[in-house]
Amino acid sequence: MLYSEMHLPTGREVPSDAEVVSNQLMIRAGMIRKLTSGIYSYLPLGYRVIRKVEQIVREEMNKAGAQEVHLPMVQPAELWQESGRWNYYGKELLRFRDRNDRDYCLGPTHEEVITDLVRHDIKTYRQLPKNLYQIQTKFRDEVRPRFGVMRCREFGMKDAYSFDADEAGAEKSYEKMFAAYNNIFRRCGLKFRPVEADSGSIGGSFSHEFMVLAESGEDAIAFCEKCDYAANLEKAEIARPEKTEPGDGDRPALESVETPNVRTIDEVSAFLNVSPQQIVKTLIFNADGRACAVLIRGDHEVNEIKVKNFLGAAELELADDEMIFKATGAPRGFAGPVGVKVRVIADYSILGLADMVTGANRENHHLKNVNLGRDFAVEAFADLRVVQPGDACPRCAGEIKFARGIEVGHVFKLGTKYSKAMKAVYLDRDGREKTMIMGCYGIGIGRTAAACIEQNFDQNGIIWPMPLAPYAVIVTPVNINETEVMKAAREIYDELLAAGVEVILDDRDERAGVKFKDADLIGIPLRIVVGSKNLAQGRVELKIRKTGENRLYATSDICEEVRAIIAAELKTAV
RNA sequence: CGGGGCGUAGCGCAGCCUGGUAGCGCGCUUGCUUUGGGAGCAAGAUGUCGGGUGUUCAAAUCACCCCGCCCCGACCA
C-alpha cells in the first residue's frame, strides 16, 4: 500500500479523554475513533489488526474442531424469558421494541440463541459432541465504559459453545478449548497466564480466565513463582497450615478489658499494644437471612466469595446493626466468638493461635487470652480469606506473588444451566431423553489487540509483534525527490509485494523525521530506509522496531532477509 | 445511582472570576527555502463558544434547565 493513498490519520497530541496507553496510542496511530461513550470505529489500520487476531482465533478454533456460525445480534425477548435472564440480566442488556411493539435486545452474549439453534437440530447422541463458534459484535450497556476498546459497550467477541452428551465429554471439550486458547494467545505474541476463576454456583474448578499481564490491567491475579498455579484473587486458594496446634501448657486465664470506643483492628492493636496477628476479627454475615460469624486473623481480609461458597448461600452480605446486636448483644465493633449466639466458622488462620484478643460481645469491651476449645467452639475451619503476597502456593512449595492482568479470554463450563432451562435434550443410546451439557468460551477481539499494545510500546509508539502487525514492513525513501532513491525504494516495495509481504511504501513528500516518527508510532516491526548515501554504495538500512537495531544490507539482499525475519517471527509465535 | 470535573477551530488548550471586536500552539491551504528523527519564513482558510431559556443596551463570560463526555465510588461478571 502506498502511504500517500492510505487513510491513516496519525496525531501528535494525546487525546485528553484517553487514560490508558493503548487507548492513547490507538487513537494517535489512527487505528480507532470514538463515536460516543464506549462505542468505537475502527479505521483501516486498526481493522487490519482486528482481522489478524480474528484469523488466528479462527485457525485455532477450526483446528480444535469447532465450526464457525454467525448468529443474530438482535434477539427476541421470548428466548431470554425462557432462560430467565430477561429479568436477571439487568441494565447491561439493551432492550428495545420493534414496530409491532415486540420486545428485543441486542445480544450481550449468545447462549440463548445457540441453545435454541441446537435444540432444534440436534436430536440424538450420534450428533454430539458439537462446538459452534462465531466472531461477532456484542453489546453490553456497561455502567462505566473505560479504557477505550478494552472496556466498551459495543465490541467484537469470539464466542464458542460446546454441547456434549455427558460429563466426560464436556470435560474433554473444555480441555480442547483450554489448549486452543493457549495456542491463540501464544501465537498473538502475548505474555499471558490462564488463571483459575470462581465459577460460582456451577461448581468445580472449571473456569479459567486468560489474563494478559500488564500493569494497567483491571484485575489482580495471584500466581506462584515456582509452578504454573495462578488464580484471580477471589478464587486463589490458601492451603490449610501445617502447624495447627497452639502448643501445650497452661494458658493464662480469660480476661475482659475495657476498651472504650475501640473498634477496629488498628485501634485494638494500638490500645492493647498487641500485634494484629494476635487479634481475631469476628464478622457477622447475613447469609440468606441467617446470621453467621466468621473468624479471621486480624491482619487478614475475609473473601466473601469463599464464605458464600462454603455456606452454599445464595445471598451473602455483611449483617446490619440490628442483626449484629441480636447475634452478639453488642453494637458493631465488639463481636467475638465467646458466647456468640450464631453459628461460627473460622478461617484456617485461626488455627495455631493461642491467647487471642477478641471482641467481648459487650459494648466497649474486648477479651484477652482467648483460647480455642477452652473458651469457644468453631463449627468448621475452612479457607475463607483473601490471598496475600507471600502466602504459600496451594500446589507446591513456592510463594504467591501478585500481578495485574487484562482478561482477554474466559473458558467456562456451563453444565446444564441453559440446556435445562431451554430444554436442549437428546436421546441417548437407550432411547432415554437427556439434557446436553454445555460449555462457553469467549475471547475479546478488540481487547486482545489493546492488551497487546499495553504489553508492547515505548515512548515512540506501538511495537507490534509480527503476528498482529497491520503491516510487516514499511519502506521509507528518505527523500522522494531523489529519483535514484525513489526508484530503489519502489523496486524493493514491488518485490516484497510480489512475494506476498504486507508492506507500506512511504511515498509521502515529507521530511525523513516525520516518516520515521509515523512509522514508529504505528509500530511496523521492520523498516527499510532508502537513503542516497547508503544507496551510492548499493546498500539500504533495516531498522528493527522492537530493538532499535540498525543493519545495512545490499539492496539485492534486503527482500530475502526481510522475508526470512518475518517467517522466523511468525514461526516462533506458532 | 452518588460525588467531582469538563464542553471554545480537526487536535491540545487560553479567555469566563471582573459582561463590550473570539485567541494561542499543532494541524490544514498557497508560495519560497530546506531535506536522515515531528523544518524555517511569508500569506491564508476554518467557530451555531454543546443546546435552550432568562437577566442585560450588550452574554463564550452571569442565572436556570437540558444534553454530551471524562474521572472517583457504588453496581455488575
Uncertain runs are none
Q: What's the number of extended β-strand segments?
A: 31
Oligomer: single chain
Q: Could you please say which CATH topology of the largest domain applies here? A: BirA Bifunctional Protein, domain 2
- Distance between the first and last residues' Cα: 27 Å
Shape type: globular
CATH C-level label of the largest domain: Alpha Beta
Overall mean pLDDT stands at 91
Beta-strand percentage?
A: 25-35%
Outline the biggest β-sheet: 9 strands, mixed
* Known CATH architecture of the largest domain: 2-Layer Sandwich
Structural class: alpha+beta
Number of domains: 3
Helix content: 25-40%
The fourth-level CATH homologous superfamily of the largest domain is Bira Bifunctional Protein, Domain 2
Number of helices: 15
- Computed over alpha carbons, the radius of gyration is 30 Å
Plain-language structure description:
By secondary structure, the protein is of the alpha+beta class. It is built from 15 helices and 31 strands. The strands form eight sheets. Strands 3, 7, 8, 9, 10, 11, 12, 21 and 24 form a nine-stranded mixed sheet that branches. It has a five-stranded mixed sheet with strand order 16-14-15-17-20. It has a five-stranded mixed sheet with strand order 28-27-29-30-31, sandwiched between helices. The longest helix has 21 residues, at 167-187. The chain is globular, with a radius of gyration of 30 Å. The protein binds one RNA strand of 77 nucleotides through residues 9, 11-17, 19, 34, 36-37, 90-92, 140, 142-144, 146, 197-198, 200, 407, 410, 460, 476, 478-479, 481-482, 510-518, 520, 529, 531-533, 541.
